[in-house]
Design a protein that fits this description.
It contains 11 helices and 8 strands. By secondary structure, the chain is mainly alpha-helical.
Length: 360
């Protein structure tokens, strides 16, 4: 293993940094889910239910995914369980987790799409944290860097000879004439993805907290993450292949296309049309918002009719108040004030949602 430090040793028990970071990602994710659940009015026990569901499902799914595509290694049962040595594929973990969450939502009579929308920012945050486990395991790195000007972290990462992949060893042999060097510099693809995911967390968090459109957060995740992973995976030297095609490149392309189509579907379904007014500023019209405003106008008219009828009845009974402001007027003003507040809140929510639709 050379001089590289893979973890810490406590009373003879080796604890890998990889495992520590994975656990950290889940703990941080739990706190974020708790905040989002409170914000959106979900049950306060939902975060803990999801943790018990997602944690084992993600680990098992990610490991099974990796093992199935590396059967030529002749895995033993003990090796399959040794996840601290690396060998997890994110797509398998996500797939198993999504299936487990769907089953949970089905029995709990909850909106599956609402739940996974909430989890999309948490997932990409966990990826941003978890990728640093690849740094400590000296894995998930890119192609060889031969130019000394770029041999610095975080653009590149120094990998020891014992952690060379077959493809990395070939690159080193071609560049230096032999692969017996102590180590070499490679693209720090794990860092590229970690940074991209950290930015993605901010984006998805804002989308989720500022809009109420179901599916928007998940669709954005598909397009955003698929786009990055497609290009970063091309640099990797440890990719798994299906024939001559890198599996992660293929899956990333499908993920990106699916995300874009989903976003367009959301956009078209809601029938939002961006128009330029006479001043050249961008306006967004929404039939749902127009419907809300029309309903409000009808409500005002009903209030006026009720107040007028009440006033006529009072006048016929000789009970008309002579104060400057009658109780009828109080009723009208209070009702109108409450209704205006509701309209303003609805308009603000729609404007926020429209802005994010255009941004995406």
């Amino acid at each position: 293993m050379g001089l590289w430090i893979y973890g810490i040793n406590i009373f003879g028990l080796e604890i890998r940094f990889y495992g520590i970071l994975m656990a950290t990602a889940f703990v941080v994710g739990l706190f974020v889910v708790r905040k989002l659940c409170k914000m959106k009015g979900f049950d306060e026990n939902l975060p803990y239910d999801l943790l018990l569901i997602v944690f084992p499902s993600a680990i098992v799914g990610a490991r099974i995914n990796y093992v199935l595509f590396t059967l030529d290694r002749g895995w033993t049962f003990a090796e399959i369980l040794s996840i601290w040595h690396g060998g997890l594929m994110i797509y398998g973990g996500v797939l198993f987790s999504v299936i487990a969450i769907w089953i949970y939502c089905h029995f709990k009579k909850m909106s599956f799409l609402s739940v996974i929308d909430m989890l999309a920012p948490v997932l990409i945050l966990g990826q941003a944290i978890g990728r640093w486990g690849n740094f400590f395991n000296q894995e998930a790195y890119g192609s060889l860097i031969t130019n000394p000007a770029f041999q610095w972290f975080p653009f590149g990462v120094y990998i020891e000879n014992s952690n060379f992949t077959p493809e990395a060893r070939e690159q080193v042999a071609k560049a230096f004439g032999a692969s017996a060097v102590d180590g070499a510099w490679f693209n720090a693809t794990f860092f590229y993805e970690s940074l991209w995911c950290a930015i993605g967390f901010v984006l998805l968090y804002l989308i989720y907290t500022k809009t109420n459109k179901k599916g928007l957060c998940v669709a954005t995740y598909f397009a955003y993450y698929g786009f990055e992973r497609f290009f970063v995976e091309m640099l990797r030297t440890d990719s798994l292949y299906l024939g001559n095609i890198k599996i992660s490149v293929l899956v990333s392309a499908i993920l990106f296309v699916a995300g874009v189509i989903w976003l367009l579907t959301i956009y078209i379904k809601d029938k939002r049309v961006a128009l330029l007014n006479g001043n050249g500023t961008l306006q967004v019209k929404s039939p749902k918002l127009d419907k809300t405003q029309n309903s409000a106008t009808q409500s005002f008219q009903k209030i006026d009719e009720l107040v007028a009828q009440n006033a006529e009845q009072n006048a016929s009974d000789g009970e008309v108040q002579k104060d400057d402001q009658t109780p009828n007027e109080d009723i009208e003003q209070n009702a109108q004030a409450d209704l205006r507040e509701t309209i303003n809140q609805s308009t603000q929510n729609k404007n926020n949602e429209n802005w994010f639709i255009i941004f995406v």
